[in-house]
Specification:
Elements (H helix, E strand, L loop, with lengths): L1 H20 L7 E4 L4 E3 L9 E5 L5 H10 L10 E6 L3 H11 L7 E5 L5 H6 L6 E5 L5 E6 L4 H10 L1
Parallel strand pairs: 3-4, 4-5
Antiparallel strand pairs: 1-2, 1-5, 3-6, 6-7
């Protein structure tokens, strides 16, 4: 009887821990163009975080990328993690097209076929954007048609 109680308590505690994490930045991993694994905890602390799940071949994602990499935009204030599921050659093409290496606050990579972020958020359409404050708390999330004005306004407030 005690054994079943302990097992039940373990399940409850683990479920509560998983539920508590839903409002926080997920512990994702991605492989960058250079083959290095980048982890969520490597994002610079003390800055808002913009997590973008995208496909380099997606038209809506291209619109988002143009907005993110436009001169003088408020997104420079945030750390931007851009994650795709496509292979590294697509990541490399995207990096060249948008010159992402010129932005010190942008980290681009692939999660490959793990689909961790896709499952975590239940992503059905791309691009997907989640905005977190400097403490890693989720503020807002959007799919497909990203409201740039709303997102940029919220980021300016942080």
């Amino acid at each position: 009887m005690l054994r079943w109680f302990l097992i039940w308590m373990f399940v409850v505690v683990m479920g509560a821990a998983a539920f508590a994490q839903k409002g926080k930045l997920p512990p994702f991993r991605m492989v960058q163009e250079n083959g290095v694994v980048f982890k969520a905890e490597q994002l610079p602390v003390g800055k808002p975080i913009l997590l973008v799940y995208f496909s380099p071949d997606c038209d809506h994602c291209a619109v988002l990328a143009k907005q993110l990499f436009k001169q003088g935009n408020p997104f420079k204030k945030a750390s931007i993690a851009m994650v795709t599921f496509l292979p590294l050659d697509k990541v490399a093409q995207f990096n060249r097209k948008y010159a992402t290496s010129t932005f010190k606050n942008v980290f681009v990579g692939t999660e490959g076929s793990s689909f961790f972020l896709r499952k975590y958020f239940g992503i059905m359409d791309m691009p997907f954007v989640a905005l977190y404050d400097k403490d890693g708390n989720l503020l807002q999330k959007h799919e497909r048609d990203i409201p740039f004005d709303s997102l940029s306004f919220r980021l300016k407030q942080l």
